[in-house]
């Protein structure tokens, strides 16, 4: 009898030790995007997991092996397909989470290793079935060096151009607010988050662009959710963009760094992007299908490469042109970090057929600039300066078949409009430095 008690005691101790050693699910966070809901489980360590669905009623089951629940799964599920969440330990070290659904979804899941902002994470994306039958996994750029790429054939986007009689369509400008959702971007000393600041600027810029006939602005994101970098350029192409403008706020180790910057793609980035586009048959199909200005249909590989090179060269030239106009106007409302457009291999700029610029509106790591960037009046001034630079460019280089091209060709484009810049006595500013 004593031996049996000893054995049972040892088994209980072993189970207790095993449970202590298990990874803890510390918390859960939820983000709602237009076509999906993202659940992020914050973990104390790595785990193995599996996901499957059940019907009648619709449920999603997440089995997390080697894990225990470290706290309640409290999260607001308003405006999501989730009605409730519950959990139970299948064994002392195996956790099951059951999500009761209002409707069927298509789940995608993956784990992420720790980075500078987060520890281990389990990400479960619930895609609305009617929105996308073949969704792209939403993987934050912060995890680019920690999670293997998942090859996915994206659904071919539908061009959404506004039909205007007599070939007088709107010029389409796609505005991209950087970061979003669980990716806050840079942070200011007083808690300002880049993702919130740049979304406010992007919405204000959209409002100003849409206030003038002949232009239409679209946003890549309209709320606090994450969009993969590649998806942002796909959105621009699906909307028939004539220009892509990505809005960000900078950060630096030195809190003294200040000033706004404008970036275009670097030559090195352009070269590697041409190779990527040739290698990716689905992306080539997007262009072939008419989603961009480049047609590679019925072209051999070498000729297709030449056409992409020419398109990228033209796109880079336009990017530098519009970028310099935007930068000059920004310099009238705030300090500049550099007086010329800089070039770097930002992924969101790597579109061979759409001129693209990235605007760093200031250093959110600088207390003074962080306060300005959070100010509605400064956000309006920044948006006004970007808008002025963009319209200067298009008044001089209007795409054929647009209302602005028609105004120019018929001599109805106001002469002053061609050279309009931000006014109201805005003074010039000194350049910032790291």
Please give a structural write-up.
The chain has 434 residues and is of the alpha/beta class. The protein has 2 domains: 21-130, Immunoglobulin-like, CATH 2.60.40; 165-418, 3-Layer(aba) Sandwich (Aminopeptidase). It is elongated, with a radius of gyration of 25 Å. The strands form 3 sheets. The protein has a 6-stranded mixed beta sheet, sandwiched between helices. It has a 5-stranded mixed beta sheet with strand order 5-1-2-9-8. The longest helix has 30 residues, at 301-330. It has helices at residues 2-21, 194-210, 229-238, 267-279, 281-291, 301-330, 367-373, 376-396, 403-409, 415-418; strands at residues 23-32, 36-43, 48-54, 59-65, 67-69, 82-91, 94-101, 105-112, 121-128, 171-177, 215-219, 243-250, 261-265, 342-344, 356-363. Its EC number is 3.5.1.28. This is N-acetylmuramoyl-L-alanine amidase AmiC. It catalyses: Hydrolyzes the link between N-acetylmuramoyl residues and L-amino acid residues in certain cell-wall glycopeptides. GO terms for molecular function: N-acetylmuramoyl-L-alanine amidase activity.
């Amino acid at each position: 009898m004593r031996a049996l008690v000893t054995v049972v005691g040892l088994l209980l101790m072993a189970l207790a030790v095993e449970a202590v050693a298990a990874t803890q699910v510390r918390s859960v966070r939820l983000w709602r995007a237009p076509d999906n809901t993202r659940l992020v489980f914050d973990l104390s360590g790595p785990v193995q997991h599996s996901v499957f669905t059940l019907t009648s009623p619709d449920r999603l089951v997440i089995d997390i092996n080697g894990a225990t629940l470290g706290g309640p799964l409290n999260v607001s599920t308003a405006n999501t397909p989730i009605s409730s969440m519950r959990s139970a330990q299948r064994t002392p070290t195996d956790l099951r989470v059951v999500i009761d659904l209002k409707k069927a979804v298509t789940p995608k899941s993956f784990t992420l290793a720790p980075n500078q902002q987060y520890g281990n994470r389990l990400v479960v994306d619930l895609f609305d079935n009617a929105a996308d039958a073949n969704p792209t996994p939403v993987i934050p750029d912060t995890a680019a060096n920690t999670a293997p790429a998942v090859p996915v054939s994206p659904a071919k986007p539908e061009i959404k151009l506004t039909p205007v009689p007599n070939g007088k369509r709107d010029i389409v400008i796609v505005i991209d607010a950087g970061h979003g959702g669980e990716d806050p971007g840079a942070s200011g000393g007083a808690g300002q988050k880049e993702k919130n600041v740049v979304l406010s600027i992007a919405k204000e810029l959209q409002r100003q662009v849409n206030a003038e006939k002949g232009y239409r602005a679209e946003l890549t994101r309209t709320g606090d959710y994450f969009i993969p970098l590649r998806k942002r350029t796909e959105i621009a192409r699906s909307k028939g963009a004539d220009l892509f403008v990505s809005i960000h706020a900078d950060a630096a180790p030195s809190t003294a760094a200040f000033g706004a910057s404008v970036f275009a793609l670097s030559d090195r980035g352009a070269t590697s992007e041409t190779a990527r586009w040739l290698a990716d048959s689905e992306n080539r199909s997007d262009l072939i299908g008419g989603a961009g200005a480049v047609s590679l249909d019925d072209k051999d590989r070498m000729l297709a490469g030449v056409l992409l090179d020419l398109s990228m060269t033209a796109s880079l030239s336009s990017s530098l042109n519009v970028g310099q106009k935007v930068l000059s106007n920004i310099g009238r409302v705030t300090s500049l970090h550099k007086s010329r457009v800089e070039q770097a291999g930002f992924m969101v700029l790597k579109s061979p057929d759409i001129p693209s610029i990235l605007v760093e509106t200031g250093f959110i790591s600088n207390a003074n600039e962080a306060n300005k960037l959070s100010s509605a009046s400064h956000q309006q001034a920044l948006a006004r300066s970007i808008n002025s630079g963009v319209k200067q460019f298009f008044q001089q280089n209007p795409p054929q078949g647009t209302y602005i091209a028609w105004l120019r060709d018929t001599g109805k484009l106001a002469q002053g409009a061609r050279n309009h810049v931000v006014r109201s006595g805005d003074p010039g500013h000194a350049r910032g430095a790291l």
